Amino acid sequence: MIGDTARAWLTGGNEISTLTLSRFFALHVFVTPALILLLTVTRFFILRDPVPVSPLARFSASSHPQSPRVPHPFPYGQFTRHATAAGLVFLALVLYSRRFPAPLGPAASTVTPGYLPRPSVQFLWLYQLLKYVPGSAGSLVATVFPGLLLLGLAALSLLRPTARRESTVASRRVIGLPMFLAVVVRVAAMTPASYVAYRRDPRTLQQLARPAA
Fold this sequence. Notes:
This protein is mainly α. It has a domain at 106-213. It is built from eight helices and no strands. α6 (138-156) runs antiparallel to α7.
């Protein structure tokens, strides 16, 4: 959709190779965190919500024009909530990865015909979902829709509060909560469905027993 030049830059040549993995690893480690940090700084320092000033502080500032301006305090409450939520999610991921480490299959040189690769449990929901989607629409489901979802969630944080801040916060929740719940429901439904499909197919169980052994 972008062009042969972008494709060649991403793959590092005419085919997928170790250069491709290195470039995607660099994008994952450097570019993506930088974009997240840029969005965070923009949200907290440039497009931050106005903090209400108490009537006493407003009266003091108007009564003493020469006095220093009332400082615009940093949104500690909002920052604390975000940092706490991010820390809890990070802790859950750490505990989960220790309990369910990424499976390593056999070396490519030793794989025999009939070997059945399967994604780790984190991506089973997407693997199962693609079974219900025609081949031509698989890329849309796997890349375009998640991208639009993340873009929509990011756009919610850029909504400037109106005179009634409560209405803006409520609007964000009304839009953002169904988007978030749609992802949760899809993951919660497709992951068990994938395990059920494994159990119903004896050939799949036989093939999965090979890498397990």
